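Suppose you are handed only these lines of text.
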Amino acid sequence: MAPSTVDGPSNGSAKKEEEGTAPSLFEIDDSDLSRLLEKPRPVNIERKRSFDERSFSEMSINISPPRNNFYRTSDNSSRVFENLEGVYSPGRWTGTPRSGYFEPHPIVGDAWEALRRSLVNFRGQPVGTIAALDNSSEELNYDQVFVRDFVPSALAFLMNGEPEIVKNFLLKTVFLQSREKKVDKFKLGEGVMPASFKVLHDPVRNTETILADYGESAIGRVAPVDSGFWWIILLRAYTKSTGDTTLAEMPECQRGIRLIMTLCLSEGFDTFPTLLCADGCCMIDRRMGVYGYPIEIQALFFMALRCALLLLKRDNCESDECIDRIVKRLHALSYHMRSYFWLDIKQLNDIYRYKTEEYSHTAVNKFNVIPDSLPEWVFDFMPTRGGYFIGNVSPAKMDFRWFCLGNCVAILSSLATPEQSCAIMDLIESRWQELVGEMPLKICYPAMESHEWRIVTGCDPKNTSWSYHNGGSWPVLIWLLTAACIKAGRPQIAKRAIELAESRLLMDQWPEYYDGKLGRFIGKQARKNQTWSIAGYLVAKMMLEDPSHLGMISLEEDRQMKPQMRRSASWAF
Ligand code: GLC
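From them, the structure of the protein bound to alpha-D-glucopyranose can be written out as follows.
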């Protein structure tokens, strides 16, 4: 198909050219974006904090015991800021070490410089960050701005008081969403967000073109199901961090949210509230046996639903209907996930003793899981104290692997109950060698080997055992771990992991991933200067120093998951 492009003069004033069909929103796209870029609306960057957040940041200074039960551990002791040395550090990071009581780690400055080098401009304005700045290996699509990769960069900029790039990115991608997308002769759903985009410069015509990929160019033609969810989550993070509600309230953004919701809330043959996906639909964007109902997508889906609920305005019947469907889905989804994806020693023992072939509503073993399908490793892996959301649940199939991203997002979105959040933390602590080792963090555990690797990955040479997606260690995940740890009241776990990461990341030139059971080796095909490894580290550091940043990426538990969940009028959600 013809690539999906947005053409435009690089100075933003000459005639605009477009290829193929020209959806009306594209008209709004260029003019509106230029208008916004030329005359930025006043952004109130005074942070609006909820009571919980206020007390949170106060606690970080006073190190006083937590006042909220939510931050208690399972043994009911309050560990919220135990051993937390970081102190509130207002102000922007400009690259020079700040004076005072907090001395940043020496690699923080290098990280900021590397992050700024990765900026991608469109008509003179930053709109994203490149996936990796590594000239030593083949670019493939690492020269693009990936939606999922940009999230930690965006958070770093928001935390540093630089929201404009995030706003530009959100606008650019929402306009790309409304482009007509095709794979061969097949037209994709309206709401699909791109996996990535790239800015092409034409020095002769003095134009810049945005070339987006919705999966139609991606290796394996994988669907970026997570992109739309990250977009909504980031829009809420921007709103929460800046207090600027005007962006989310723009008709284009409201429509963008509704289109994503329409895609994932459409009725079909489903018997479960979880979202059915093909393999490679998320961060793990190659065949890895994550098709079906992968935890990463379910957790992001849940979080995006909750964020959409906070962002949608009840000012037309389309939105009203969308909100009602979201509320219903949230109830069913949280029930399903908390009941069927959760695994701890008791649940494992129950499955081990399951009877099979149970028919009708009285069935205990609802999905007809055959106990013999339980992998041997899970019996050793499961600690007496602790638990996690498993990788996948579908008929007669439970994928018992641990996936880091899904579990962290489950904590951040409060899909996990406070008890489950504590249990996930307990698991990480007691399986430190396996899940953190020498470089945080394992993307999944354990790796598939020999026959299983051949069958499940299709003999993928990039996903050999303990490499890349198949049990490799990804530094980017440290920001998610840190956020989840702070939320669960266990920041000392994150602190330990960050110290491990910072002992090597700069020296190794910010690799994309590490290989080996303990993550001791720089990944076989890992790119250097991988932007989300850099940004992930910075976000983790900034959150640990100032835990009030957590608010932009975390949602408090909805008290009773009541159907009457409403958008807060004050936006102090
Ligand atoms: C790899 C990762 C994917 C990431 C992309 C760009 O394909 O699997 O998650 O978005 O690289 O960094």
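What can we learn from it? The chain is about 40% helix and 10% strand. Confidence is low (pLDDT under 50) at residues 6-91, 95-101, 562-573.
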